């Protein structure tokens, strides 16, 4: 087996193990951080935690173009790791879609599809659910999991400030109000 398929297989085993342990099947998780402290963010925080710089990435959009995370600086950004087979992900995505429309002048939502079942399934899912936010494909970027501090389960969602610093992390699906409260605090600061 070549290195890339082995890495993808290993990632999927880790995510599936987390889902069985209550990750993906959990409807709620633990919110970490407080967006109201965005101005004083310390960039030496541990990977994937409040105050850490989000790792830059360039991922393929469904239209074939690339999205560079650092190109979104100047706006708040939500980065959501999800997949089409994950019930809590499916529950959270409409909330994130609504936020991307409501706060579109100040916020960009980037839905990073792990795409276990392939790009066509992700494309069909986004069309069926009317997702107009940025949807990108995880592809073979397995290093992103480590660079974002590891992930217990999906969805795992990060709120970044305009400088790309993590201000909030959610593990699991949350009510829209949880995401919206953090976004409002961040864009008001």
Overall number of structural domains? 1
Could you state the order of secondary-structure elements as H and E? HEEEEHEHEHEEH
Helix fraction by DSSP (H/I, runs of at least 4): 25-40%
What's the count of strands? 8
Q: Strand order across the biggest sheet? A: 1-8-7-4-5-6-2-3
The overall pLDDT average reads: 84
Biggest sheet record: 8 strands, mixed
Task: Output the structural class.
Answer: alpha+beta
Q: What's the CATH superfamily, by name?
A: Glutaredoxin
Rg from alpha-carbon coordinates: 15 Å
CATH secondary-structure class? Alpha Beta
Overall description:
The protein is of the alpha+beta class. The chain has helices spanning 3-20, 87-102, 119-128, 143-147, 176-188, and strands spanning 31-32, 58-61, 66-68, 76-82, 107-113, 134-137, 156-160, 166-171. It has an 8-stranded mixed sheet. The radius of gyration is 15 Å and the shape is globular. The model is unreliable at 1-23 and 25-43 (pLDDT under 50).
SSE order and pairing:
Blueprint: H1 3-20, E1 31-32, E2 58-61, E3 66-68, E4 76-82, H2 87-102, E5 107-113, H3 119-128, E6 134-137, H4 143-147, E7 156-160, E8 166-171, H5 176-188
Parallel strand pairs: 4-5, 5-6
Antiparallel strand pairs: 1-8, 2-3, 2-6, 4-7, 7-8
């Amino acid at each position: 087996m070549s290195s890339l398929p082995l890495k993808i297989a290993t990632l999927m085993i880790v995510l599936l193990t987390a889902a069985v342990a209550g990750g993906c099947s959990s409807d709620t998780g633990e919110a970490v951080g407080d967006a109201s402290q965005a101005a004083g963010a310390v960039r030496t925080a541990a990977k994937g935690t409040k105050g850490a710089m989000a790792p830059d990435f360039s991922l393929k959009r469904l239209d074939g173009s690339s999205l560079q995370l650092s190109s979104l600086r100047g706006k708040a950004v939500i980065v959501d790791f999800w997949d089409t087979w994950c019930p809590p992900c499916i529950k959270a995505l409409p909330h994130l879609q609504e936020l991307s429309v409501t706060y579109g002048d100040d916020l960009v939502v980037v839905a990073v599809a792990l795409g276990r079942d392939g790009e066509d399934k992700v494309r069909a899912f986004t069309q069926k659910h009317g997702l107009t936010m940025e949807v990108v494909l995880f592809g073979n970027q397995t290093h992103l999991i480590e660079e974002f501090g590891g992930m217990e389960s999906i969805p795992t969602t990060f709120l970044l400030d305009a400088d790309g610093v993590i201000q909030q992390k959610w593990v699991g699906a949350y009510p829209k109000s949880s995401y919206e409260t953090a976004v409002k605090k961040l864009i008001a600061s």
